[in-house]
Design a protein that fits this description.
Blueprint: E1 2-14, E2 17-19, E3 26-29, H1 30-36, E4 43-48, E5 54-62, E6 69-72, E7 84-94, H2 95-98, E8 104-108, E9 114-118
Parallel strand pairs: 1-8, 2-6, 3-5
Antiparallel strand pairs: 1-7, 3-6, 4-5, 4-7, 8-9
């Protein structure tokens, strides 16, 4: 049996461009791709925090250090400049692979610069 598991995410990235007539899907600053382990042309899921829209597309590499998060083509109908999005990639793992696996989590600031990384999501606690 194989399970679909979170491979990597870029958390709360700010969309810098929405280019309806540009070929491609989401162009992401190459430093963020490298830090997350998301590969160019890899299938990704994007979740728009502002609108709640979710879509599946693929990653393109933007200039390293540019801070670019450009939602392109038909995906540009799902986000606009200034929106916050989460970009996630998934991987299929066997039960044996799962025992040693941890996702790569990349957190960014308002300028899409890495603020920190992590290998796990903190456990959610009940509200007081």
């Amino acid at each position: 049996m194989h399970l679909n598991m979170l491979k990597a995410k870029i958390h709360r990235a700010t969309v810098t461009h929405a280019e309806l007539h540009y070929e491609g899907s989401i162009a992401i600053d190459g430093l963020l791709l490298d830090a997350s382990g998301i590969r160019e042309y890899e299938q990704i899921h994007a979740w728009n925090i502002n609108s709640g829209q979710r879509f599946v597309t693929y990653a393109l590499r933007a200039e390293e250090g540019s801070g670019i998060i450009s939602v392109n083509g038909s995906a540009a109908r799902s986000a606009q400049a200034g929106d916050l999005i989460i970009v996630a990639a998934f991987v299929q793992l066997s039960e044996a692979e799962l025992e040693k696996f941890q996702p790569t989590l990349v957190y960014v600031n308002a300028d899409n610069r890495i603020s920190h990384t992590n290998r796990s999501i903190p456990k959610q606690m009940a509200a007081a």
